[in-house]
Amino acid sequence: MAHATNQSTARAAVTDTRNASFEDLLQTLKRDQDAKIDMVAPASAINAVDGNLTVTGVEPVLTPSGVTRADGAYRPTAVADEGIADKLKIPTAYLRRMRAEAVDLYDLNVNGWLQKDPTRRFLLRAFKGEPGVLRAWLSDGYKIIDHLDMLTAVLDGIRESGHPVKITGADLTQRRMIVRVESEHVAALAPELLRGYRSPFTGQTGDQLPLVSAGFVLTNSEVGSGKYAITPRIVAQVCGNGMTITKDAFGKVHLGAKMTEGIVEFSKDTQEKNLALITAQTRDAVATFMNRDYVERKLADIQREAGHEITRPAETVELVAKQLRFSDSVRDSVFSHFIKGGQTTAGGIMQAITATAQTLDDGDAAYELETQALSAMSIAAAA
């Protein structure tokens, strides 16, 4: 029975969550936190067997809940395989092919490169189980900022700011956590930006509801797929489309001091210092981004390009897709949303991209597409 429970926990902990409520996100993060185990191990302690990574010789630690052991087998996720490929200088596409078609070659290559430098140390981030799940293979200088700790500090910062906000949705993927925050009180008129636009979701027009709300998006990766960041986001109330202003983002890269070998444990003092910084940054972000003057300044910048007429929509969407490297399916969806939106301007291209982002099932893809919307508008305006 314990064996089945461990496997179930490991599988559940790498399941992506899209458009979760705050309550569901918090529940998932707490479950994942209980399943986590992090360790720093030398190459000599790691061995690939049947596509799993087996770790031996890591010193157990005593915790309030009992003895924690790291030794065992861990099944790498796709993200972990990317880390292995990067750190061992094995082409990622080749490593994926070996896993899919010839796992004996996967083991041979990974073990061969580990044996080249047996003293080299790595940070392995995993979920416990039989086998466990290896979710990241990182440098031993990677600074851990966990999602649950970050979210707790962010909420503290929001409370300290005294500004009422709401979390409108969250995505949790194998790569990152994405939390969308919106102000309940800071709105601005954007008639030029929304003139002639029709929401593909509700049918309501921007002329009927020409308002945008202030907000920001919180992102964090526990597995080396980007820094912790707070990025301003302006949301069109008529459709929920979000304009993410990446150039104004601030955050912190996951770079710290080299860690000693063994199971990773942080002192209370270290944790408090990390969280105090995030809390302070969040408080500053709320003061900066949840401000009508800030929103109106950004709207003025956006609207300078948004009104440019698009006379050849198919060619313009193709140009944008090519420059920003959209897949064919995303390109086709953007064109469809552009037609449905009825706004034949560069701003309409931007709206089509942010609307498409809302329809994607992949949280990472949706986030990355939304961050490209303003760049797409600039490309369309200059075409």
3D structure, described in words:
The protein is of the alpha+beta class. 46% of the residues lie in helices and 24% in strands. It has 14 helices and 16 strands. It has helices spanning 2-12, 22-35, 78-88, 92-101, 103-116, 147-161, 191-194, 268-289, 292-306, 313-324, 328-341, 346-359, 363-371, 373-382; strands at residues 17-20, 36-42, 46-49, 52-55, 61-63, 66-68, 72-76, 121-127, 132-139, 165-172, 177-189, 211-220, 228-236, 242-244, 250-252, 262-263. The strands form three sheets. Strands 1, 10, 11, 12, 13, 14 and 15 form a seven-stranded antiparallel β-sheet that branches. It starts with a helix and ends with a helix.
Structure summary:
With 383 residues, the chain is an alpha+beta fold. The chain has helices at 2-12, 22-35, 78-88, 92-101, 103-116, 147-161, 191-194, 268-289, 292-306, 313-324, 328-341, 346-359, 363-371, 373-382, and strands spanning 17-20, 36-42, 46-49, 52-55, 61-63, 66-68, 72-76, 121-127, 132-139, 165-172, 177-189, 211-220, 228-236, 242-244, 250-252, 262-263.
What percentage of the residues does DSSP assign to strands (E)?
15-25%
Query: Could you spell the SSE succession in H and E letters?
Result: HEHEEEEEEHHHEEHEEHEEEEEHHHHHHH
Oligomer: single chain
The helical percent reads 40-55%
Name the shape in a single word. Answer: globular
Q: What is the typical, i.e. mean, pLDDT?
A: 90
CA(first)-CA(last) distance = 63 Å
Q: Using the CA coordinates, give the radius of gyration.
A: 23 Å
Helix and strand composition category: alpha+beta
Number of helices: 14
For the sheet with most strands, the description reads: 7 strands, antiparallel
Count all strands and give the number: 16
Poorly predicted sequence stretches spanning 5 or more consecutive residues? 1-13
